[in-house]
Specification:
mainly alpha; about 50% helix
Length: about 50
């Protein structure tokens, strides 16, 4: 599963600037490919000091 999500993230990195959106899209791709992965996600995000 990790390889699928990583591959999807790399493919989307040039297209998507928002890290959370990128992670959600990558995990959606992984869930579509891998029978052991589902689309139920818990994403924890930290506020960045801008």
């Amino acid at each position: 599963m990790l390889q699928s999500a990583l591959s999807a993230a790399r493919a989307l990195a040039d297209y998507e600037q928002d890290a959370e959106v990128l992670a959600r899209k990558a995990m959606k791709v992984a869930a579509d490919i891998c029978v052991y992965t589902n689309e139920n996600l818990t994403i924890e995000a930290l506020d960045s000091a801008a």
